[in-house]
Amino acid sequence: MSWMRGWQSGFVAICLSVFCLIGIANPAFADTVQHPMDALTAAEYETTLNILKEQGFVDETSRYPFIRLQPPAKETVLAWQPGQPFDRAAFAMVKQGPEVYEAEVNLTQQQVTRWEAIADVQAGILLEEWTHAQEITQADTQWQAAVKKRGITAVDYEKVVCAPLSAGYYGLPEEAGRRLFKVNCYDQRDTENFWGRPIEGVTAVVDIDAEEVIKLIDTGVVPMPTSPAGYTEAEVTQNPAPKPLDWVEAKGHDYSLDGQVVNWNNWQFHVRMDSRVGLVLSLVKYQDQGNWRSVMYEGSLSELFVPYQSTDPNWYFRTYMDAGEYGAGKLTVPLEHDRDCPSTAVYLDAVFTDDRGQPYVQEDAACIFERYAGDPVWRHYNFANDQSTSRRDRELVVRFITVIGNYDYVFDWSFGENGTLKVKVGASGMEEVQAVPAMRFDTEDGTGVGFGRMVAPQTMATNHDHFFSFRLDMDVDGAKNSFVCDDLKTIAVKESPRTSLWAIASHMPKTELDAKMTLNLREPSLWRVINPHVENFVGYPTSYEFKAHGNAMSLMQSDDYPQQRAGFTQYHLWVTPYEPDELYAAGNYPNQSHGGDGLPAWTRQNRSIQDTDIVVWYTLGLHHVVRAEDWPVLPTEWHEFEVRPFDFFDRNPALEISSRA
Ligand SMILES: [Cu+2]
């Protein structure tokens, strides 16, 4: 089990560099532990399960939606030096029948340190439930009768794909206390893109604990779309192959991995994969004039919310919170070499656990590569001497792709030589489309086209949003930070040919209720995490700025159940004091949650966020109004934000980049 096959296969090239020794000393990535933030190994997952079993907490019927590293206390990690011993611990979400428990297991001392029943929640979704909900649906006589009306009989069932969707919460008495899926099915008899062949108007509401369909929604037959929806080589006539275009690292990688610690240029960070949120970066530091300066203690996705905008009985509930419901890490897929990542990339395997807590290796779950996209990081033309000076913009990218049903999300964390950390999300995959009678937009006749846009005859892509919440525990030059808003305000001036200008009026929110921020182009504000105790060379506090690159606000009303459940989407940025158990913006249990959990609940305490350890929560959102070009497969649509140095350095940190780079 090696996390580093790409690394090893490039071994000869690597040995040309100084990092050769590291490669020899650390041939494997995820099966040894040398850092407190290292992901749990397969052996540690097994130990977790054995301790819980031996001490009588779990049995063969227990299931585990999520098991992950329980990192040591932050102060312990910060004080740790390489080579020193440290305790290892695991967190497990345990489902025993309808009951949910949380366990913390100290693996070093072989002790269960916490076992707590969590009332009135639904655990994350298990793969076996997903599979079983499909079986329950297809075995239901009402469902069979409904699809028969649509020309599908038992002989066709093996070509029917059912998608058990998370059910959401709508305060319906008949759903109270039940663990539910809402199952929609697709016909893949004539195309590999079954998402383009919805068996429309039929939804099975499955109680997975009772193992039955409690309600079959049938809103009437809608003809199956027939227009081509294929995307594979077998289905699409391809263009002639172009001339080769590739990347070359003739002298090996310019970055190194020491265990799960990545070093590149002046950056250093630790990377691990988590079954719920995917990539977790921690201990992000920058070496400045020989000094290691901390930037961020830990950063990751925290939740993902995708609400569809329809009142159709088969659609209204589609308001997914994919990270907490399904697991953005668990749903990673192996990256396609030389397509999803460049040919020079190093691939990292991840170790996750299945429903029964047994570890397995997810191969090529993430990749690391250095990118030069042909852009200058800075340049200048001096007209006095007719000379241009320009430097290459190289960045280091860490990437994983998670596939949550029809959507494929590419998550990038990218480090620049200019000191900037970029967080990018690329959405690709398939639209969730609704079959409608209309052949063309201009024949709209009240058949439901109002909830979306036509992308093909009889095929309507429903309006929806994507919101990604990122949790970024910033430690700018240390843990004690404050949050500052530099508000740009128009002021009227006299005794000048000008009548107005803008100037900066900074303010420092005292508490978390003061720091709920919304982007506003008419009242712009710079959002910065500062260290009030460290100054740059002209006396400003050092800081990192959160810089938006486009965003969206939720347009749902505050009394709408999905909006209450994903309350974090009320604002683009929240600031909370560091609390190790506050990890997920919509709370620990978003599956069928009733609303108000996570950031809205925590921030009601109105804790101080001044001169203390703070966490920034940034929500990146987009309204997806679907175009014809988004079908049958969505061209990867990128959205991003930057966390960039602002008076952190005394000058442009990319100044010294070699002209020969
Ligand atoms: Cu979309």
Uncertain residue ranges: 1-28
What Rg do the Cα atoms give?
A: 26 Å
The CATH superfamily title of the largest domain: Copper amine oxidase, catalytic domain
CATH class of the largest domain: Mainly Beta
Tell me which ligands are bound.
copper (II) ion
User: Terminal Cα separation, in Å?
Assistant: 35 Å
CATH architecture of the largest domain: Distorted Sandwich
User: Mean pLDDT, rounded to whole units?
Assistant: 93
Helical percentage: 10-25%
Overall 3D form: globular
Number of domains: 4
In total, the number of strands is: 30
Structure characterization notes:
With 661 residues, this protein is mostly beta strands. It has 4 domains: 28 residues, no CATH class; 85 residues, Roll (Nuclear Transport Factor 2, Chain: A), CATH 3.10.450; 92 residues, Nuclear Transport Factor 2, Chain: A (Roll), CATH 3.10.450.40; 380 residues, Beta-galactosidase, Chain A, domain 5 (Distorted Sandwich), CATH 2.70.98.20. The chain is built from 10 helices and 30 strands. The longest helix has 13 residues. It is globular and about 80 Å long. The structure holds copper (II) ion. The site of copper (II) ion has 4 residues, from strand 23.
Concise overview:
The chain has 661 residues and is mainly beta. It contains ten helices and 30 strands. The chain has four domains: 1-28, no CATH class; 33-117, Nuclear Transport Factor 2, Chain: A, CATH 3.10.450; 127-218, Nuclear Transport Factor 2, Chain: A (Roll); 267-646, Beta-galactosidase, Chain A, domain 5, CATH 2.70.98.
